[in-house]
Amino acid sequence: MWTAIWIIARKDIILEYRRRWLLASAVLFGFLFVVVLGIAYNGKPLPPDAAAGALWTVLLFSCVTILLRTSSFEEERKAWYALFTAPVDRSAIFYGKLLANTAFLFLVEFAVTPSFWIILGVPAPAAWPPLLIGLTAGAVGLAEVGTFLLFLTSMSEGREILFPVSLIPLAIPLLLAVIRLTAGAWTGADDLFVWYAVTGGYLMVFGLLPWLLFELLVEV
After folding, report:
1. Global pTM value
2. Which of 14, 19, 186, 189 is most buried, judged by most C-beta within 10 A?
3. Looking at the 3D structure of the chain, how many domains does it have?
4. Cα–Cα distance measured from residue 84 to residue 89, given in angstroms and rounded to the nearest whole number
């Protein structure tokens, strides 16, 4: 199973390396979003809560852009059927796509987050661990729920609308947690245990749910 997961993830990463425009467009979108925020705030420093919310708004919409396009290769060439008929456990398909999508989201976070210090004048975090944990958990969590919904909506008409409309409500608990962790990193707050717990529970649910339900959902 681990071999199948790695082969599927490697296939997506190689395809993106050859095209290159997907990550470039997502990073450019996020950077322009930050520029617009800088114009809107007229160069004034953002409060920690506002800065954290703005950061995750940018990352969420960049995530939607990436996840919709990573499935376009299979959608345009009707390759979903080839994946589903591969002689591997169906959950390996999910986890392979999840691994690749998580890598893409990490790259976008790495490219977009520094622009908040440069363009918006947000100060350096008072505590780095909540920020790093929030960014890591946010990328993994959005990739989990996003990849799961991609498979559910892959055969639906209007997928470009149905996917974000389904993703955003399901991502609200995760976004609340990572926004509080990110804001806590800037303010140096130390009462963040409940948000660590929410984040861990969310990652566990959407990490295990596809393993339990994916075979049944694919057959339906």
Report:
1. 0.88
2. 186
3. 1
4. 9
* pLDDT of the chain, 220 residues: tens digit per residue: 677 778 778 877 887 777 777 777 777 888 888 888 888 877 677 777 888 888 898 889 888 888 877 766 666 556 666 666 666 677 777 888 889 889 888 988 888 888 877 887 777 788 888 889 999 999 999 998 988 888 777 666 767 788 888 888 999 999 999 999 998 888 877 788 899 999 999 999 888 887 777 666 665 5
With beta carbons less than 8 A apart as the criterion, state whether 115 and 82 touch: no
Max Cα–Cα distance, the chain, nearest Å: 57
Q: How many residues does the chain have?
A: 220
Instruction: Single out the residue of 204, 179, 203, 201 nearest to residue 192, CA to CA.
Output: 179
C-alpha 220: how far from chain center: 26
Query: Domain range for residue 72?
Result: 2-219
The token pair that represents 187 in the structure block: 């303010």
**206 close to 171: Cβ distance less than 8 angstroms:** no
